[in-house]
Amino acid sequence: MAFWFFVLVSGMDIIVFNTVHAEQLPTTEEFISIDCGIASNANYSDSDTLIEYVSDDQFIETGVNFNLSSSSSSYRGPIIYQTYSFSSYITQMVTLRSFPDALRSCYVLKPVTRYKKYTVRAQFLYGNYDGKNSSSIMFDLHIDVNFWQTVNVTESTALYLYEVIVVALGDSVSVCLINTGSGTPFISVLELRPLQDDMYPAANTTQYLVNFFRLNVGPDLGSSPLR
Q1: Tell me: the pLDDT tens digits for 42-78?
Q2: Which of 110, 124, 156, 161 is deepest in the core (most CB within 10 A)?
Q3: How many domains are there within the chain?
Q4: Domain containing residue 189
Q5: Residue 18: predicted pLDDT
Q6: HEC letters along the chain
Q7: CATH number for position 187
Q8: Does residue 227 lie within any of the structural domains?
């Protein structure tokens, strides 16, 4: 059983929603799963979920690929914190793409269906990939032209995860990393998941829902985070 808590973003108003959903095995139709920073045209199936991950070269033309040199890693969501050893860590965290030379770098996720709802999930693990041992990196995320989230990385071995529910306004959804002058933007994983039309009615063409936090209640011991 999983609990989701979302914040409605519409102008200056913020409203919190909570929902409960029993987990079902999903189809991967219309999934977009990007392992940022892996080799051009590479792809693989995740050993746990069997979801296919692809390289990001077909979704963006800028940026530099890096491999993490960290020997240990941990997971941090907006609220929940849980630690894993790097040897058993999910494959998607081993690489990332960095954007040192651009003010605005956009992934164009497509194809999507116009007016359909989607969850967009972005994950960030610094891991001192650049050798600078930065204690604070901040940059913004936009969905298309709209502000989504400020990413504030303060721990090298922490995974920061952000989600938003949007309605596609065309045949693509853009996720943009914005350099605000407080560190080089980077990204480890970017995912898009389709939703049923009757889910989250508060999300529409004029407003979106930002995930506040998620609780996976009663999972099996040793199970991986929900993906």
Answers
A1: 999 888 788 999 999 999 999 999 988 644 455 444 4
A2: 124
A3: 1
A4: 2-9+30-216
A5: 52
A6: CEEEEEEEEECCEEEEEEEEECCCCCCCCCCEEEECCCCCCCEEECCCCCCEEECCCCCCCCCEEEECCCCCEEEECCCCEEEECHHHCCHHHCEEEECCCCCEEEEEECCCCCCCEEEEEEEEECCCCCCCCCCCEEEEEEECCEEEEEEEECCCCEEEEEEEEEECCCCCEEEEEEEEEECCCEECEEEEEECCCCCCCCCECCEEEEEEEEEECCCCCCCCCCC
A7: 2.60.120.260
A8: no
